[in-house]
Design a protein that fits this description.
It is built from 8 helices and 14 strands. It has a 6-stranded mixed sheet with strand order 6-5-7-4-1-14, with helices on one face. A 4-stranded antiparallel sheet has the order 2-3-8-9. Strands 11-12-10-13 form a 4-stranded antiparallel sheet. The protein starts with a strand and ends with a strand. Ligand DP6 binds next to helix 4.
Length: 316
């Protein structure tokens, strides 16, 4: 019996990925740039045992069936074939943050799973190979292999762009509902590709936006980076909305308005939203407490979690 445990952290995209390259399962159509968040963690143990008769996925202490289990099992079958092992695995995974908090639990989930399962099946892989493995499960998971800021360019291995201490960044995650999201990002991006009249424009926009953000990040140019990361989120959502996919709720819009108002008051804050109604507010550490208090007072906000750039996925 072999048991290996790994820890990974969620990542939030500053330059969003939305849409896969035609005919692929895990190659993004556009480049993305993200920050891996410390503090919040997924801890996963993979046990490989000749006696198991099937793979088992336990999330938060519950044996899981349905879509998440099917996705993990298909991923494990590929890994087993690569490792040349006939043995099934038990996967036990725990998030120390609420899964409905809108933080990308599939990203930290597949990043932790890749590190733990590769080792449990005896594969000695470098970080880029582990990222590619995580990407087979969930595209954005590739970025959680890296500490600090990471990029994922179509057709290339994910890699680090800057270390966690490159910028004194705080991400304020404003939770607007406890409900699980209505539509998976996988299904929603497929629908955007087939139904949105704006999808092609999104892809063209995303290329230039990514390059601008990458340069601004490296130059520590907060204003350019902030404006461009907010533009990325709104452009992604606009293309999805044109296909009938609306992730925003009333609190999302109220938060977006509050962020705009705070900026006119001189507070450096920029909003970003993913496949859910929560708002991630990017700010500088010197503005974080003022911004957090202001966001907490927006009606409908359930809580605000403050996170800073953190480490990549690792074995423990
Ligand atoms: C809005 O990586 O979760 O968070 O590749 O189908 O697993 P799959 O989708 P996923 O999509 C993430 C979309 C996003 C933007 C981003 O993280 O870049």
């Amino acid at each position: 019996m072999t048991a290996v445990t790994a820890i990974a952290h969620p990542n939030i995209a500053l330059a969003k990925y939305w849409g896969k390259r035609a005919g692929t399962r895990d190659v993004p159509a556009v480049p993305s740039l993200s920050v891996t968040l410390g503090g919040l963690a997924t801890r996963t143990t993979v046990t490989v045992e000749p006696g198991y008769s099937a793979d088992e996925l336990w999330l938060g202490g519950q044996l899981t069936t349905g879509d998440s289990a099917a996705r993990a099992t298909a991923w494990l079958a590929e890994l087993r074939a690569r490792a040349g092992s006939p043995h099934f695995a038990r996967v036990q995974s725990q998030n120390d943050f609420p899964t409905a908090s809108g933080l990308a639990s599939s990203a930290s989930g597949f990043a932790a799973l890749a590190v733990a399962a590769a080792a449990a099946y005896g594969l000695d892989l470098d970080r880029a190979e582990l990222a590619a493995l995580a990407q087979r499960g969930s595209t954005s998971a590739a970025r959680s292999l890296f500490s600090g800021f990471a990029e994922l360019v179509p057709g290339e291995p994910a890699r680090q762009v800057a270390a966690p201490d490159h910028l004194p960044l705080v991400v304020l995650v404003c939770v607007t509902t406890e409900a699980a999201k209505e539509m998976s990002s996988r299904a929603a991006m497929a629908q955007t590709i087939t139904h949105s009249p704006y999808y092609e424009s999104w892809v063209r926009f995303a290329e230039g936006n990514f390059a601008a953000q990458r340069a601004a990040l490296l130059a520590r140019d907060w204003e350019t980076l902030g404006a461009a990361l907010e533009a990325s989120a709104f452009a992604m959502h606009a293309s999805a909305m044109a296909a009938g996919i609306v992730y925003f709720n009333d609190v999302t819009l109220r938060l977006a308005a509050r962020v705009r108002a705070l900026r006119t008051e001189g507070v450096s804050v920029w909003a970003s939203m993913d496949a859910g109604p929560h708002v991630k507010v990017f700010t500088r550490s010197q503005d974080a407490s003022v911004a957090q208090r202001a966001l907490e007072s927006v009606p409908g906000v359930l809580r605000v979690i403050a996170a800073t750039p953190g480490p990549g996925a690792m074995r423990v």
